[in-house]
Write a structure and sequence with these properties.
Strand order of the largest sheet: 1-5-4
Number of helices: 6
Radius of gyration: 15 Å
CATH class: Mainly Alpha
CATH architecture: Orthogonal Bundle
Shape: globular
């Protein structure tokens, strides 16, 4: 499965969802870190960045899929970009998702659900705790609790 197919499959794991940039970056980082053997190797090259692991290729893949009318990119209240599958993208993504091993499919669903119910602070803090090497260039500081 190539990078774009993995992106479609992962985004189809939980239908009718709008993703933020932090969701995409952390989702594909966690897939690369925890599922690489099952998906024929890592698909991205993440490095530490301002808010944890980042690879611009995540956005390149999503933008390529948008050009194919499989992903739509919009703005949330004019502030930040949001990403969602088009109906055609969902259909193709579901087919691709079924090609992944069942444990990988479940892992992806679990990560997506965790990302969607977690706020930005929790996501970044959790990634930093589990993958401290990704904090190296970080500018993130936890919000006051």
């Amino acid at each position: 499965m190539d990078r774009n197919d993995l992106v479609l499959a992962a985004l189809a794991s939980v239908p009718d969802v709008e993703y933020q940039a932090v969701h995409l970056q952390k989702l594909f980082f966690l897939i690369d870190e925890n599922c690489a053997d099952a998906i024929d190797g890592k698909k991205f090259n993440f490095g530490p960045n301002d808010f944890g692991p980042y690879d611009k290729a995540v956005f390149s893949a999503v933008e390529e899929l948008a050009r194919q009318n499989l992903v739509q990119i919009g703005r949330h209240r004019s502030r930040y970009r949001i990403f969602a599958l088009t109906p055609e993208g969902l259909i193709k993504g579901k087919v691709l998702l079924r090609k992944l091993p069942s444990d990988v499919r479940q892992y992806i669903r679990d990560v997506v659900k965790w990302l969607l119910r977690s706020d930005f602070d929790k996501i970044v803090q959790t990634i930093y705790k589990e993958y401290p090497e990704m904090k190296r260039n970080g500018v993130y500081r936890a919000s006051a609790e």
